[in-house]
Amino acid sequence: MKRQKQYILMARVLSMVFTPFYLPIVGLMVLFTFSYLNMFPWLYKLQVLILVYLFTILLPTLLIHLYRRYQGWTLIELGHRERRMVAYIISILCYFTCIYVMERLHMPHFLSSIVVAALLVQIVCALINVWWKISTHTAAIGGVGGALFAYAYYLNFNPVWWISLVFLVAGVLGSCRMILRQHTLAQVVAGFWVGFLCAAIAILLF
């Protein structure tokens, strides 16, 4: 019984650490490491990361938390399929705002492409959620894998070790979501591949 509680606690912590909103930040770090964008001043990179963090992680997380508290729901109750749509709408609006601000600031399209990819993942997951619950946690880590795949094609670097790490994290994260009884195996696997394909397609086309 004690060991079971430890597994549940660990699953909750990892689910909180690997929030579904981290895809744009990770994607930007990849760009700032492997592309010509690594020549940009550190101050500019930091400003971009802070801007994207505010609109894609801090703001949606805060608004969803406030909405959940207003409704008096627990995290598990918010996870019910019919209640997740508001969370999707909040995050989609925040992502749209982030893209709008980046365009107004005339940032390179290469930067905003990762936010567009994350937005597409959110929209597709929201549409699927209308009739079937899908894991946004594994969709996010799948999006990281798809972004790495697309950027490796554009920037000509070997992504094997990075993608291997993504698959490892996805396996752990998917297991956590099942331990918490938030998703089935089919839902976490589907989430990963939806995120992977949406991110890869969005970046390759955008």
Description:
By secondary structure, this protein is mainly alpha-helical. It contains nine helices and no strands. The N and C termini lie far apart (50 Å). The model has no long low-confidence stretch (mean pLDDT 85).
SSE arrangement:
Blueprint: H1 2-17, H2 23-34, H3 42-71, H4 75-78, H5 84-104, H6 109-129, H7 136-155, H8 160-179, H9 185-205
Q: Give the overall pLDDT as a whole number.
A: 85
Helix content: over 70%
Class based on secondary structure composition and strand pairing: mainly alpha
By DSSP (H or I, 4+ residues per run), the number of helices equals 9
SSE string, helices as H and strands as E? HHHHHHHHH
Radius of gyration: 17 Å
Number of strands: 0
Q: In angstroms, what separates the terminal alpha carbons?
A: 50 Å
What sort of overall outline do the alpha carbons produce when their principal axes are compared? globular
**Beta-strand residue fraction:** under 5%
Report the uncertain regions. Answer: none
Largest sheet geometry:
none
